[in-house]
Amino acid sequence: MKILTAAQTREADAYTIREEGISSTDLMERAAKAFTGWFENKFQPGAEVHIFCGPGNNGGDGLAVARLLHERKYKVQPYLVGDISKASDDFNVNLKRLPQALSPIHVEQESAIPEFNSDACVIDALFGTGLNRAVTGLYGQVIEKLNSSGATITAIDIPSGLYADSQTPDEGAVIRASYTISFELPKLAFLLPQHEPYVGEWHVVPIGLSQQFIAEVKSDLYCTQQEDVQQLLKPRRKFSHKGTYGHALLLCGGYGKIGAAVLAARACLRSGIGLLTVQVPQAGYPILQTAVPEAMTLTDKNRKHLSELPQEMEKYSVIGIGPGIGTERVTKTTIGQLLATASFPIVIDADAINLIASSEKLKGQLYKRKLIFTPHPKEFERLVGKVKNDYDRLQHLREFCLEYGCYVILKGSHTAVGTPEGKVYFNTTGNPGLATGGTGDVLTGIITALVGQQYTLEEACRIGVFVHGLAADLALQTIGEISMTASDVIDSLPSAFLHLTQPLP
Ligand SMILES: NC(=O)C1=CN([C@@H]2O[C@H](COP(=O)(O)OP(=O)(O)OC[C@H]3O[C@@H](n4cnc5c(N)ncnc54)[C@H](OP(=O)(O)O)[C@@H]3O)[C@@H](O)[C@H]2O)[C@@H](O)CC1
Ligand SMILES: Nc1ncnc2c1ncn2[C@@H]1O[C@H](COP(=O)(O)OP(=O)(O)O)[C@@H](O)[C@H]1O
Ligand SMILES: [K+]
User: In this protein, which residues make up the domain named YjeF N-terminal (predicted)?
Assistant: First the structure.
């Protein structure tokens, strides 16, 4: 699914109207019906619904929604906020269509807004994608009042005041919605952690925008969805054997963190790798052999740390390095040797990222290699320097991938996969149960397994983060967010792969 800018969304609206020969009022009606459909599933008829409409088409949506919810027996009160003498045509059409029983309140000062019952619903239809400056003055005061009202706010298309695809100015007021119902496609703003207080839980509802326009319009931003991953996953062939599915090497674990190697190894095996060798410091040998009998185990000459590469490096198809390895000088030297010799893809996580980030020499060895980095936001800042906000972080993500020709999996709630071509794929699975130690090690194991099976690096990144999040979503059903551990995510990997390869009817 592509992510469009606000300007592209307006073009998509206009294109659809032209190509389908419908009026913009018809498209607004579709949008209002789609919103109402979602609303009816969420809130019972009879509920008190206060709808705040601005002067543009977002306000027009609000008026159409007011009419539809009134027909469905909600207790609706529309509000017209500010100067509506220059309101859009479709706003005026829908104002005229309001049934007589719905008498709108004109809000010329914020004191015109009454106190709401504690179970009241507010629908925010002040501004949508036509927002063109920070919201201040009366509109700002209205937003602040609604935010502090205690009512449950549902935003139409986007929380008013929030810029859809660039940094919202600090001085602008922004609606804090519990739910945001967006038309046809999500907006970039929804995927960025800094907007969590505003966007709440978001959903996309289709309104029949031209699929041809969406397919042809240029955008480097995408959301990876289940259908995408199902199309990418390859079935195992009847006459295949373990050699068909790659031989992965994991260089993970250190004294006190052998568990990281165990987690990565188990996840790798549950993600379809043909053969797996894990090299751990000597202290890890009995642990690995007991905890992961399917993996072949090599030991480092060092008791506690990664200090050497194994013999016969050429037999591996992929390496995963980093979880639990620590930041000893000797480990840094070993990473330098790895970058100098390995010709196959490398998945670089955790302390391997930290060591590379701390050394210009190692950074200089990154060019023209097949590399996937899997940093969390702190590790990413060590690589690229301090970032100013989430948009700046995305910009750095693209620049880093372009400069080094590598892939970066920037982990978070909507993990972002950056590619050397400048594309960014946002993930749509996962939940806060993943916010616990070791789940990143699991991801390293999964990605390593997928690269080993000859998925392209881009495919491996997209499938890997999706499956990792899906496994956590499936674990959620029986374990919940609070008790979830990294091992639970591994235990749910089989269900996640089954879910994707044999979808339930
Ligand atoms: N196009 C279609 O067919 C469809 C569109 N749809 C819906 O329309 C929405 C987009 O509508 P839109 O383009 O009319 O813009 P919208 O967000 O309502 O705001 C524009 C108005 O706000 C004003 N204004 C802006 N910023 C301001 C500020 N900071 N402070 C104060 N005023 C400010 C601006 O005034 P001006 O800049 O002229 O002073 C103008 O009057 C979209 O999100 C979706 O909900 C759906 O129905 C599907 C079909
Ligand atoms: N709130 C959240 N929602 C969804 N996924 C999350 C959330 N918090 C963390 N994650 C995921 O959990 C993993 C954590 O990785 P990381 O921070 O490297 O953990 P560790 O180093 O302990 O293994 C990442 O894949 C990240 O995307
Ligand atoms: K809105």
Answer: 9-215
